[in-house]
Every structure is written in structure tokens, then in C-alpha cells.
């Protein structure tokens, strides 16, 4: 019994560590566009997001119930399975954060949980219908719906304000962006903090502390909310850079449209108990807002890398979770080794991130987005390319005979 109590404590702490990584990994969902357009200073933005994530954690438990009693069968699942699942989710979160890719923390958690459960008890331990209806379908639908809504909202916003002076409308859009960013943060706390609540509740059920089907206790809700808020305040600057500057260049009207559309989709899904990816919803909304403006562009090289990360998240986290569960099945030494590998892996990733640090001071440096000075060439509008080529030709082709030469310029000494 003492061993189970100790193991439960380790699992709960590990779950809160995942929640913390979820916070800084997904800060970009709410604040990337607000920071990139200058509506809020970076540190102010993440502080505001942290507070609203904490508030959002107390608004609902529908998603938590989906995690704790829907995706896998509670009966026959050992507490070690939850630990292995969290190892897979944390390592994938940290790896994609290092690469600056806005992948889904939610799908990392689901993948780790499914992989560990299958390794422990076989495929029968997974509720396939729940995975399809409440994970896979929302994963495809959420970014499409949010992107389409953001594109339409952007077009409508520009049409309504076509005759208005930009300087006159700027304060209104700034206030709208701040309000919509707050709504996204609230929605993120409502949806993502609940996933950790569900995992801790599931661990308590497998350890015999709670009865199957129980709601998360108040202390679980509070601790999950605090952990995700602290992670949010830390700020995942690498992913904020990708979301705010790497996918497209957003003007304040586009930022407002993207955030409002994403928040609407996330809040509606939380109410229905759909455990969708807030990252995918917000990324889809940002791309939709980029395409919704006339002449707007999307950097498809960055978007393609992001799509690949989305596709890999479930299976990659599942494989790590399954490997971790294979170790934990060996007994106490396996659990200790799994924990040691988690700590070492996290330390290595953190050390690599320090080679090229991204902070609130350089988060909006466009030249460093997408890997170099020529990043974003795929997003340059055609008229800009034409103008550049014309200027180059004028500079290199000699003037034709009879053409009036330009006045000679006297060099200053």
C-alpha cells in the first residue's frame, strides 16, 4: 500500500509537470497574434493569459470526464500506465517546443495514454469509438472550422472598415484583440487544464482512491489550474514566434478575427466534451485570417512542417508511451529508470534550447523565423517580386542610345 501511495504521488507530480509544459507550449494559442501585432507587450500578454487560464480551469469538468473515463477502460489499468503515458507526452511536448512547432499537447497526451494502455492490456483497453468521435474527428474538423470562420470574419472586418481611417480604428482593434485574446486564454484553461485533471483523476481511480466515474476533486482542479497558469506565464517564446510571425503576417483586424474564431470553436467544444487541440484550432484560425485579407499570404513551408508535426504527434507519443510502459512493467527498477530517462531527456532538450534562446526580447524578430534570413520567401507577394526584379534590371542593363541620362551625382568627400 505504501508503494502504491508513493507511486500515485509520483504520477500526480508528473501530471502537473505535463500541465506546466502544456502551459508554456500553448501560450502561443492565445497571445501570439496579440504580441506580433503589438497590441500587448510580451510579458503583459503572458501574465494576462496565465490568470485567465487559471480562471478557465474552474469553469467545467466535461473534458476531464472524457479523459478519465472515456478514452481507455479504467478496469485493469495500472497506475504505472498513467506514468508511462505522461512520459511520452512530456518528451514530445519538449521536442516540438525546441523546434518551435505548434503541435498538440492534447494529442501528445492521448497518444501516450493509448500507447501505454495497449502495451499494458492490449487493444481492448482502448475505447475506439470515443477516440474517433471525440479525438480524431475534432482534430480534423477544428482547424478547418476555425480557419474558415477566421477567413470569413477577416473579409467581413475589412469590408466593414474599408472606408474608415486606419489610425481611427487602431485603438478599437487593439481593444478587440486584447478582449479576444483573453477569451482564448479562458477557453484554453477550460479545455486544456481539464486534460490534466482527467489524467490525475484516472490515476486516483486506478490506485483505488476514487470510484470509477468520479468527478475531479477540488484540489485536483486547483492544482491543475495553477500548474498550467505558471507554465503559461513562463511563455513558450519559440512557438509564439512561429504562430505570430512564422505562419503569416497579421494586421490587427486579422488578429482580432483569428482569436475570436478560435475562442468560439474551443468554448463550444469544451461545452460538448470534445477534447480538441486548442493549438490546431488557433493555428487554423491564424492561417484563415492570413488568407482572408486581400493580398494576404501564408508561409507554406512553415505550415507544412506544422502539419507533419500534427500527423506525427499521436503515433510518436504513443510509441514513447509504449516504450515507457514496457520498462515500468519490469517492476520498481523499471519505474525508476523511466523517471531517470524523462529527467535526462528533458535536460538535454533544455540544454539544446539554450544554444539559440528565444525570449520576450527577440520573439518578434522576423529574420530568425523559419530557420534563416531567407525564411518566408515563399510568402512574398508577386507584385513585390516583380518590383524587385524591375529594380535589378534597371540597375544592370545599360541605358539605350538617345535616352536622357540621369543627372550625375557628386560624391561627398
TrEMBL record:
Query: Which keywords describe this protein according to UniProt?
Result: Membrane, Phosphate transport, Transmembrane, Transmembrane helix, Transport
**Main subcellular location:** membrane
Kindly give the InterPro entries that the UniProt entry links to this protein: Phos_transporter
Name any one Pfam family assigned in the record.
PHO4
The entry's cellular-component GO terms read: membrane
Alphabetically, which GO biological process terms does the record hold?
phosphate ion transmembrane transport
Compartments where located: Membrane
Q: What are the transmembrane regions? A: 6-24, 45-61, 81-101, 108-126, 132-153, 196-213, 219-240, 307-327, 333-352
Question: GO: which molecular function terms?
Answer: phosphate transmembrane transporter activity
Q: Does the keyword Transport apply?
A: yes
Q: How does it sit in the membrane?
A: Multi-pass membrane protein
Q: Which family does it belong to?
A: Belongs to the inorganic phosphate transporter (PiT) (TC 2.A.20) family.
Q: What is this protein called?
A: Phosphate transporter
Species assigned in the record: Streptomyces himalayensis subsp. himalayensis
Amino acid at each position: 500500500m505504501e508503494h502504491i501511495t508513493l507511486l500515485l504521488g509520483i504520477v500526480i507530480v508528473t501530471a502537473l509537470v505535463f500541465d506546466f509544459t502544456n502551459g508554456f507550449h500553448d501560450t502561443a494559442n492565445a497571445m501570439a497574434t496579440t504580441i506580433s501585432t503589438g497590441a500587448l507587450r510580451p510579458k503583459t500578454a503572458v501574465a494576462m493569459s496565465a490568470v485567465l487560464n487559471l480562471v478557465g480551469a474552474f469553469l467545467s469538468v466535461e473534458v476531464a470526464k472524457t479523459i478519465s473515463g472515456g478514452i481507455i477502460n479504467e478496469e485493469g489499468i495500472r497506475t504505472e500506465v498513467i506514468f508511462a503515458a505522461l512520459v511520452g507526452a512530456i518528451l514530445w511536448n519538449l521536442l516540438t517546443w525546441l523546434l518551435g512547432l505548434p503541435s498538440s499537447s492534447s494529442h501528445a497526451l492521448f497518444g501516450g495514454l493509448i500507447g501505454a494502455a495497449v502495451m499494458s492490456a492490449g487493444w481492448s483497453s482502448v475505447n475506439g469509438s470515443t477516440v474517433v468521435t471525440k479525438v480524431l474527428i475534432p482534430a480534423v474538423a477544428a482547424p478547418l472550422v476555425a480557419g474558415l470562420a477566421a477567413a470569413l470574419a477577416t473579409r467581413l472586418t475589412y469590408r466593414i472598415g474599408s472606408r474608415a481611417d486606419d489610425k481611427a480604428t487602431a485603438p478599437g482593434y487593439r481593444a478587440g484583440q486584447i478582449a479576444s485574446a483573453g477569451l482564448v486564454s479562458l477557453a484554453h484553461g477550460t479545455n486544456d487544464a481539464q486534460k490534466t485533471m482527467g489524467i490525475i483523476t484516472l490515476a486516483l481511480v486506478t490506485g483505488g482512491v476514487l470510484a470509477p466515474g468520479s468527478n475531479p476533486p477540488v484540489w485536483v482542479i486547483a492544482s491543475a489550474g495553477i500548474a498550467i497558469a505558471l507554465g503559461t506565464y513562463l511563455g513558450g517564446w519559440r512557438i509564439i514566434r512561429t504562430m505570430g510571425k512564422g505562419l503569416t503576417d497579421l494586421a490587427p483586424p486579422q488578429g482580432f478575427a483569428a482569436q475570436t474564431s478560435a475562442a468560439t470553436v474551443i468554448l463550444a467544444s469544451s461545452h460538448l466534451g470534445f477534447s480538441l487541440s486548442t493549438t490546431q484550432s488557433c493555428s487554423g484560425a491564424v492561417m484563415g485570417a492570413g488568407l482572408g485579407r486581400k493580398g494576404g499570404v501564408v508561409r507554406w513551408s512553415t505550415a507544412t512542417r506544422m502539419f507533419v508535426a500534427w500527423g506525427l504527434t499521436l503515433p510518436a507519443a504513443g510509441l514513447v508511451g509504449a516504450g515507457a510502459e514496457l520498462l515500468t512493467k519490469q517492476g520498481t527498477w523499471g519505474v525508476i529508470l523511466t523517471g531517470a530517462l524523462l529527467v535526462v531527456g528533458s535536460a538535454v532538450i533544455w540544454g539544446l534550447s539554450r544554444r539559440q534562446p528565444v525570449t520576450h526580447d527577440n520573439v518578434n524578430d522576423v529574420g530568425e523565423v523559419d530557420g534563416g534570413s531567407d525564411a518566408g520567401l515563399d510568402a512574398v507577394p508577386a507584385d513585390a517580386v516583380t518590383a524587385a526584379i524591375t529594380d535589378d534590371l534597371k540597375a544592370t542593363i545599360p541605358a539605350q542610345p538617345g535616352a536622357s541620362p540621369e543627372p550625375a551625382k557628386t560624391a561627398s568627400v
